[in-house]
Amino acid sequence: MDKRLRHLSALRCFESAARLQSYTQAALELNITQAAVSQQMRQLENALAVKLFVRKGRNMHLTEAGGVLLMSTQSAFKRIIGGLNQIQTQELAGSLTITSTQSFCSLWLMPNLSSFYEAHDDIQIRVLGSNRFEDIRLNHIDIAIRFSTKRELACPAGLEQLYLGEDSNYPVCSPSYKEALQIKSPSDLARCNLIHHDDDKVSWEQWFESQGICGSSICAKGPHTRVSSNDMALSAALKGQGVAIVSKELFLDFQQAGLIVQLFDIPHPVVWQRYVLFDPYSPKSARIQVFVDWLINHLP
User: For the chain, which residues score pLDDT lower than 50?
Assistant: First the structure.
């Protein structure tokens, strides 16, 4: 890149002073002092080894070289402003990239996207499932739907984060498994295959302890299955492989279809807090707002 572009700030100052033919008026427009304008013009002339202004009375007049530079800078700035306006006023139609956990993407977002498309068939959605907190700027992501056991989740600088409420977790299994094991009370789970989560943020031990039952002794027995995500836990439960603790929003559709049963109206003591994160200054802001509004209205 041409080293003279290091003087972009001075070129902006030059354009203002040349157009207004006054250092004083340029200072007012740029919200800096007249001395700062004068200094930037001297530095620019020294850097370019060209005289840009001559003083005539109280006004500054352009030299021939200054006139050429003024035309060039004004043309360049107009193109920059045109580009900024173009990217900041994108129409509603277009694309959005959305990230969330693999479980949420596969068990809630994908099955419900059809209702979004019914109202906004001109918006294309790209879904990125990831169990990490992806850097939305680095990875060109427009919206991140995140979950935490904390009521307050730190928001990266320059981004906006909205709280979407909470979601509770319940023990679930297939109807056939419940009937086969004759599960009627929490103590009956002692003879069941319990499906555990690897990270233990929502553990069986915690759920049992909340009911006054020694969870460690029950969980020490087998057979038990360990999985790394909610979708795997629910998949195992749907196939009659045991009892899993799953968030309500992820198993609700299966429950309504009669494929899964919530064993007890006893939530896990740990509750998931839900958030949506986005860049409020994104050129896709109108598109983002449409999706966020839909999300708020459709989450259970």
Answer: none
